[in-house]
TrEMBL record:
InterPro entries to which the protein is assigned, alphabetical: Cyt_P450, Cyt_P450_CS, Cyt_P450_E_grp-I, Cyt_P450_sf
Pathway: Secondary metabolite biosynthesis; terpenoid biosynthesis
Source organism: Ambrosia artemisiifolia (Common ragweed)
Designated name of the protein: Cytochrome P450
PANTHER family: CYTOCHROME P450 71A2-LIKE (PTHR47955:SF15), CYTOCHROME P450 FAMILY 71 PROTEIN (PTHR47955)
Gene Ontology biological process terms from the UniProt entry: sesquiterpene biosynthetic process
Length: 473
């Protein structure tokens, strides 16, 4: 009883901590997160405010749920909040967090992030893979055309397209076999799993007993064997054509040149490639799927987009990447899709590296931080009719998703912001523009669209989008 009493009573320290919901011994507030943590945290913030301190197991977690709170963390004090917490499963999957997304803030992260920003994902590099996107988009359109008006599973086609684009850009060829797809699925599932040991270190044995750690070791080993073969093939290949270089070639070249005083070890290269897969495929396909789904539910928006693509396409066989910048409504559709269906609703957890005062509250060094970007994007004090899909709201608005407008944060912001925005959005825009340009789509076999979400780090649509597609005359 004494232990319980001390857990429920507020802290005795003279620190001014943010408001906290009552917690249980050992598990803290874990039991309150349910299957949809972003929704549960949004509801809690209505009682405890936009900056609240919860406890996941024994770990203190600061949750930000307003534009101001997010801005304080990701802009004003970005440096102090630029680290990542240590999490057991990513540690196994990303070569002891030698990747970008999960590595702690410091010199190593700075070096690998700058390799990604300047060499792997720069605008110029992304443009150089236009032929890959064109190929995959054309193949997908052809598959839809061949279905000849019968039911087509668009979600499956989107997954396969994004996987192929990422594989070809990163590894030089598509790996379409069931085995590779299954490996990627298991990898993503593990990333979304809750590891007890990460939040209650004394109960790490639960992860061993439940088989979670064994599963993570197995997937990490299988991915490593796959990447070893890929690296060997790249080291031994004779083709030195600059145009056909993929991301593995570029990383190996970087390793060979090594004139910047930073040695890129083999494990680091593998960790960076795993990052591109895990950060790049699921998120990209999810945002394409949700935008398409909302268009299918909103015929007026679909009609307006069709009008725009037809005006730009003018009867040419397809919409090209050069056309995309002339399509404000297409861009507005994606912004609105990302607003309502933020693929990573809580972004990627951060960790503070110094004691700091935030909105008058004392935040201790080592506090984990979650930004509820999903809740901010539906905040009625910021957005008019926030639950409605209304792309027009972006037509005369400067708000963008690149990390400068804290009301719309699907890619995060600041030092830790996503370096893959261009990579993801050009493929998404190209596919959706052509889909709408070439076909009239109608939902198959459903009264209305099922909007249920999956649980996990990325929030997908639970049921696939199945349509019949009639070629436009
Ligand atoms: C629609 C697609 C995507 C979404 C919604 C998305 C979202 C995000 C978010 C929310 C973060 C964390 C930001 C933060 O902590 O402030 C992130 C980080 C990251 N993303 Fe993306 N991403 C997408 C596509 C991509 C692609 C295509 C790639 C690479 C090919 C990529 C690579 C990364 C990497 C490496 C990081 C870690 C950055 C760091 O920790 O410094 N992402 N992304």
């Amino acid at each position: 009883l004494l232990i319980l009493k001390s857990s429920f009573s507020s802290t005795k320290s003279n620190k001014n901590l943010p408001p906290s919901p009552p917690k249980l011994p050992l598990i803290g507030n874990l039991h309150q997160l349910g299957s949809s943590p972003h929704r549960a945290l949004q509801a809690m913030a209505q009682t405890y405010g936009p900056l609240m301190l919860i406890h996941l197991g024994t770990v203190p977690v600061l949750v930000a749920s307003s534009v101001d709170a997010a801005k304080e963390i990701m802009k004003t004090h970005d440096l102090i909040f630029s680290s990542r917490p240590h999490l057991n499963i990513p540690d196994k999957l990303f070569y002891a967090c030698k990747d970008i997304a999960f590595s702690k803030y410091g010199e190593y992260w700075r070096q690998v992030k700058s390799i990604a920003v300047l060499h792997l994902l720069s605008n110029k590099r992304v443009q150089s893979y236009q032929h890959v996107r064109d190929d995959e988009m054309t193949t997908m359109m052809e598959k839809i055309r061949r279905a000849n008006g019968s039911a087509v599973n668009l979600s499956e086609l989107f997954i396969s397209l994004t996987n192929n684009v990422v594989c070809r850009v990163a590894l030089g060829k598509a790996y379409e076999g069931r085995k590779f797809k299954n490996l990627l699925d298991r990898f993503m599932e593990l990333l979304g799993c809750f590891s007890v040991g990460s939040y209650i270190p004394s109960l790490r044995w639960v992860d061993r007993l439940s088989g979670l750690e064994r599963k993570a070791d197995k997937v990490a080993k299988e991915f490593d064997e796959f990447l070893e073969v890929v690296l060997d093939e790249h080291v031994n290949k004779n083709d030195t054509c600059v145009e056909s270089r993929d991301l593995v070639d570029i990383l190996l070249e970087f390793q060979r040149d090594n004139d910047k005083g930073f040695r890129l070890e083999r494990d680091m290269i593998k960790a960076l490639i795993v990052d591109i897969f895990s950060a790049g495929t699921d998120t990209t396909f999810t945002s394409l799927e949700w935008a398409t789904c909302e268009l299918l539910r909103h015929p007026r928006a679909m009609k307006q987009l069709k009008k725009e693509v037809n005006e730009i396409g003018q009867g040419r066989p397809m919409i090209t990447e050069d056309d995309l910048d002339k399509m404000p409504y297409l861009k507005a559709v994606f912004k609105e899709g990302l607003r309502l269906h933020t693929p990573l609703p809580l972004l990627v957890p951060r960790e503070s590296t110094e004691d700091i005062k935030l909105h008058g509250y004392d935040i201790q060094s080592g506090t984990q931080v979650l930004i509820n970007a999903w809740a901010i994007a539906r905040d009625p004090s910021v957005w008019e009719e926030p639950e409605e899909f209304r792309p027009d709201r972006f037509l005369n608005s400067p708000i963008d998703y690149k990390g400068f407008h804290f009301e719309l944060l699907p890619f995060g912001a600041g030092r830790r912001g996503c370096p893959g925005i261009q990579f993801a959005m050009v493929v998404n825009e190209l596919v959706l523009a052509n889909l709408v340009y070439k076909f009239d789509l109608a939902l198959v076999g459903e009264e209305g669209m099922d909007m249920s979400e999956t649980n996990g780090i990325t929030v997908h649509k639970k049921c696939p989008i199945v349509v019949s597609a009639t070629p436009c005359s």
